[in-house]
Amino acid sequence: MPYHSTPLDLAFHALSDPTRRAVVSRLAQGEVPVSALAEPFDMALPSFAQHLKVLEQCGLIVSEKRGRSRWCKLVPARFDEAADWMEAERRRWAERLDRLEVYLDKNEEDEAHDKPA
Amino acid sequence: MPYHSTPLDLAFHALSDPTRRAVVSRLAQGEVPVSALAEPFDMALPSFAQHLKVLEQCGLIVSEKRGRSRWCKLVPARFDEAADWMEAERRRWAERLDRLEVYLDKNEEDEAHDKPA
DNA sequence: AGAATGGTAAGGCATATGCCTTAGTAACGC
DNA sequence: GCGTTACTAAGGCATATGCCTTACCATTCT
């Protein structure tokens, strides 16, 4: 999706794959080396490494090579951007429903007093 | 991404495009017909319609044809699944950091009392 | 009825994605 | 040094994505 690819685009794209979400999920535990991360997945290592590359390129994780293994860890900032966007939308949606409810209640009241629109 | 495509995959994929996020964002206002939704975008209508199709197929929106225009509205449930997943991860992450902090504080205290690990 | 409006269908094109295999390279273990 | 371990590079293949254009309906306006 390099047509546009803002950080948010990339983060959501990264999270649209179950393998990558599982990695993110696992990294809540802290740092994990690539081999340990890859172990649960029935996938060739190079394929799995691509997923890590996607996560790293969009800034959801960082990694560092120590000896012959590479350790990965989450970067909450990028994750938060996406989560914050979702919460903000959720709030906007909820506010609209609240206003709608107030409006409906008001009309009901008016009707009770014989003052329809 | 029909390799896997759970609802969560599809929702995140749908949200990875800025045009589609803008549509979701706009629909917080309520129902909007396709032409009005499409108006801000410099894109042929059929291209835009594809984006709506993606949103509808993953359950983020529903639409209904009235007369010759189609009205779209948000479906919060699917959106919430994605938002909930993100919040749950965020919480797990925060909890781990809390435990880490407690652990570090404890060690600091121990050191102060001359009892290192 | 005939034209305009609001989509929808169909198909085409360039690029991206997700997987694979094979072939390296760098660090450790003996 | 030599084999093993842990990745990394390179390239290939099928399918998906995002855009386009050119038809083609329905519905509504005049």
From TrEMBL, chains A, B:
GO MF: DNA binding
* Keyword Repressor applies: no
Q: Which Gene3D superfamilies match?
A: Winged helix-like DNA-binding domain superfamily/Winged helix DNA-binding domain (1.10.10.10)
Task: Please indicate which superkingdom the organism of origin belongs to.
Answer: Bacteria
- Keyword annotations from UniProtKB, A to Z: DNA-binding
Boundaries of every HTH arsR-type domain copy: 1-94
State if Acetylation is listed as a keyword: no
User: What is the name of this protein?
Assistant: DNA-binding transcriptional ArsR family regulator
Q: Which organism is it from?
A: Aminobacter niigataensis
